[in-house]
Amino acid sequence: MPQTRMELPVLPASRNPRELPVDGKVPLVGKTREELAALLTEWGEPAYRATQLFQWIYQKGAREFSGMTNLPLALRQRLAEVAVPGCAAEEMRQRAATTRTTKFLFRLLADGALVESVLMGHNYGWSACLSTQVGCRMGCAFCASTLGGLVRNLTPGEIVDQAILMQKELPPGQRIGHVVLMGSGEPLENYDNVLKAIRLLHDPGGLNIGYRHITLSTAGLVPGIRRLAAEGLPITLAVSLHAPNDELRSRLMPVNRLWPVAEVVAAVREYAERTGRRVTIEYILIEAVNDTPELAAELARLLAGMLVHVNLIPMNPVAERPQFRRPGPERVRRFAEVLERYGISTTVRREMGGEIEAACGQLRNRVVRRHRG
User: Fold this and answer.
1) Gap between the Cα atoms of 358 and 116, Å rounded
2) 159 and 48 in a common domain
3) What is the domain-level CATH number for residue 351?
4) Which of 179, 212, 272, 280 maximizes the CB count within 10 A of its CB?
5) Which of 132, 125, 131 has its CA nearest to residue 363?
6) In this predicted model, which residue has the larger pLDDT, 272 or 368?
7) How far is CA 44 from the centre of its chain?
8) What is the CATH number of the domain that holds 43?
9) Same domain, 227 and 122
10) Is the residue at 178 inside a domain?
11) One of 87, 129, 140, 360 is an active-site residue; which one?
């Protein structure tokens, strides 16, 4: 008999919201220009008011309707009665001493849940790392995000509002030019909300982030990769592989028991061929676990001839995962050299925030534990 395909259990509606009220009011962040226009048209407002409101929310990050001075006073008062501009607020932040990196902990106004985001300054500009879920249920053995399991998916507004709030922290004239959906959570498990958020991040009337400057990272949900390939959006796909064979990857990443290495690699090949976009293979290096030259050679043979780039990430230590250690520079260099010898494009990720608990989930976990006392 053919083997039955295992699937992830479907999330109940309560854990997969499209929109969540804030104090009984509708958050406007997360709404498209067309959705804002539909709301205002019902009130008899001209269509151009939607564009003005959209700019206040997404370009200027306005948090109060009273400051939206090009809107009529009556409209501002009516909006304040039924809506709120944003849906998140800063809880705390940590700044790195040696790099232009700040980690933010945001509190979601609908239910008080916490999510992490990171703002990073590079020589080419500013990038933002956003979360797509509260927690995560992928269960990766080395990850801090998954320790408490999945609480719920983020709404489109909650994803975008992270970028809006960080944008407000930049000096005048500077803006976020790159977004990576690599924070807590599995973006492809929150597919519809993430895709709407990506389109809102891209909108020229708002944050105006080019699709080619948006990266989505997945643990390897094959149906989602194939669905994304059909969207026609020239975003960058990053796939967390972390091992070149099923035995090791299943130990590190339980999702491999649903979609094993061969299926993930086939989906990556299909994505690259269909979109013409080079796929990034993320590979966290863990000392004496997946960082040997033999595994590097196996990885190189697996990826031979594909339009991919390998991003090696020396593991950020996680207090709750003491069995996994960060490899020394020599082990990292040797792994990269093997890949390059096989002709695989390879880089070692530059450290941006190890000193501020930059590994996904660490800051949130610490604050949640403290609150539970």
Assistant:
1) 9
2) no
3) 3.20.20.70
4) 179
5) 131
6) 272
7) 38
8) 1.10.150.530
9) yes
10) yes
11) 360
Shared domain for 35 and 110, answered yes or no, is: no
Write down the residue that tokens 């190890």 correspond to: 354
Domain range spanning residue 368?
Answer: 88-372
CB-based contacts of 325, cutoff 8 Å, min separation 6: 286, 287, 288, 315, 317
Q: Do residues 176 and 166 lie in contact, with contact meaning Cβ atoms separated by under 8 Å? A: yes
Q: How many domains does the chain have?
A: 2
Rounded CA-CA distance 352/97 in Å is 10
Tell me if 38 is assigned to some domain.
yes
**Do 292 and 357 sit in the same domain of this protein?**
yes
Q: SS3 for 323-356, per residue? A: CCCCCCHHHHHHHHHHHHHCCCCEEECCCCCHHH
Residue 370 reports pLDDT greater than 60? no
Active site residue 360: yes
CA distance 346 to 82: 51
- The runs of H, that is alpha helices, within the chain are 33-42, 48-54, 73-82, 156-167, 191-202, 222-229, 246-252, 261-275, 293-303, 329-341, 362-372
Residues 251 and 158 in one domain: yes
Question: What is the C-alpha separation between 214 and 154, in angstroms, rounded?
Answer: 18
Hunting for tokens 């008999």 — which residue is that? 1
- Specify the pLDDT at position 320: 85
- Residues 46, 163: one domain? no
Judge whether 14 lies within some domain.
Answer: no
Per the annotation, the verdict on 45 as an active-site residue is: no
- For residues 178 and 220, state if they share a domain: yes
Least Cα distance to 151 among 194, 112, 94 occurs for 112
Can you read off the two tokens belonging to residue 125?
Answer: 């500009």
Q: What is the SS3 assignment for 370?
A: helix
Q: Looking at 116, 158, 186, 189, which residue is catalytic?
A: 116
> In this predicted model, what pLDDT tens digit does every residue of 17-37 receive, in sequence order?
999 999 999 999 999 999 999
- Residue 344: name the closest of 285, 301, 315 by CA: 301
**Per-residue pLDDT tens for 309-335?**
999 999 988 888 889 999 999 999 999
CA 65 to chain centre: 29
